[in-house]
């Protein structure tokens, strides 16, 4: 380890100690102090090989009344938005994600209601202090986006049918947008991130599987043309993510969901193609009928002209007249 890195680690340790002392002195309420100290200990500047004590934070939440859980969320967000360290940021996100997945229903509701907009909004985060931090910053931005979309998806859990399917596929696309530097999974923090996101991914794919299973051939045929187009587009978006997701979650079972997606996509394309062919056939028949009617009209139009030799009758000059029958 080089001298600059050692100095950086020492500065990080110093910052952590100062933050702990401030939390001890500034907060008078025991729950508030306990939550801030637990967050600080879980989100140190230490090397990423040290996993954060996630269960310790969750145990503390369960120890106090659900009404105090807002203090934990505030402490986590304050720590997250007050740092430029990728390691601190990743540990904050891991802690929050762990609480969302494994916390009590009351705690999850508290998180969902904490803000009406994006909870994290880390699109501008970057740590350019050197080494791998620039590329790891991309992981922080992506992970924050995954959590924000997951919270948004939970807020809209009562949406049904095609709309719900579209929201789930949006979430899959966000997960699929992980940085290309998947080799960073060798770092324990990134490995933990992929593991937690993998839990979300499996739950989402199970729900997608259940929704798509409802689309039998008869139901597909009953859909409107607009709904057919939206469903086909959603299925293609999902299939475009398959290769990247397989790379990310090598050992995760899919329970035949990709095969089901392909089967339903073919059924939808078949119905869409049949409707387009029928529409084209109707247009061709309509055009043929119009042309035939015009030709019949032309054929029954007859010119009535007096004989050339007797152009006058009763001293009245004849003009050509056209009579149409029908």
TrEMBL record:
PROSITE patterns for the chain: ENTH
Gene3D superfamilies in the cross-refs: 1.25.40.90
Keyword terms, alphabetized: Coated pit, Cytoplasmic vesicle, Endocytosis, Golgi apparatus, Membrane
Domain ENTH span(s) in chain numbering: 27-161
Major site of localization recorded for this protein: cytoplasm
Gene Ontology biological process: clathrin coat assembly; clathrin-dependent endocytosis; vesicle budding from membrane
GO MF term set: 1-phosphatidylinositol binding; clathrin heavy chain binding; phosphatidylinositol-4,5-bisphosphate binding; SNARE binding
Subcellular location: Cytoplasmic vesicle, Clathrin-coated vesicle; Golgi apparatus; Membrane, Clathrin-coated pit
Domain of life: Eukaryota
GO cellular component: clathrin-coated pit; clathrin-coated vesicle; Golgi apparatus
PANTHER family named among the record's database cross-references: CLATHRIN ASSEMBLY PROTEIN, ENTH DOMAIN-CONTAINING PROTEIN
Name the UniProt record assigns to this protein: ENTH domain-containing protein
The species this protein was found in: Chenopodium quinoa
């Amino acid at each position: 380890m080089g001298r600059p890195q050692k100095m950086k680690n020492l500065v990080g340790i110093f910052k952590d100690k100062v933050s702990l002392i401030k939390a001890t002195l500034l907060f008078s309420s025991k729950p508030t102090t306990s939550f801030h100290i637990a967050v600080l200990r879980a989100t140190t500047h230490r090397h990423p090989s040290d996993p954060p004590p996630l269960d310790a934070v969750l145990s503390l939440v369960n120890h106090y009344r659900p009404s105090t859980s807002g203090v934990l969320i505030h402490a986590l967000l304050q720590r997250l938005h007050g740092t430029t360290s990728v390691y601190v940021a990743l540990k904050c996100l891991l802690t929050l994600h762990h609480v969302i997945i494994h916390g009590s229903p009351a705690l999850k509701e508290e998180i969902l209601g904490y803000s009406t907009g994006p909870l994290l909004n880390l699109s501008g985060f970057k740590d350019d202090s050197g080494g791998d931090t620039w590329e790891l910053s991309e992981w922080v931005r992506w992970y924050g986006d995954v959590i924000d979309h997951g919270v948004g998806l939970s807020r809209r859990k009562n949406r049904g049918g095609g709309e719900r399917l579209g929201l789930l596929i949006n979430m899959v696309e966000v997960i699929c947008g992980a940085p290309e530097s998947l080799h960073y999974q060798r770092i324990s923090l990134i490995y933990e991130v992929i593991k937690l996101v993998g839990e979300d991914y499996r739950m989402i794919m199970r729900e997608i599987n259940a929704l798509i299973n409802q689309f039998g051939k008869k139901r597909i045929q009953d859909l409107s043309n607009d709904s057919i187009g939206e469903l086909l587009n959603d299925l293609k978006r999902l299939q475009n993510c398959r290769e990247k997701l397989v790379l990310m979650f090598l050992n995760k079972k899919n329970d035949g969901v990709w095969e089901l997606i392909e089967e339903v996509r073919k059924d939808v394309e078949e119905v869409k193609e049949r409707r387009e062919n029928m529409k084209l056939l109707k247009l061709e028949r309509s055009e043929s009928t119009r042309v035939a009617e015009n030709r019949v009209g032309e054929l029954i139009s007859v010119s009535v002209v007096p004989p050339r030799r007797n152009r006058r009758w009763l001293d009245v000059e004849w003009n050509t007249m056209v009579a149409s029958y029908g």
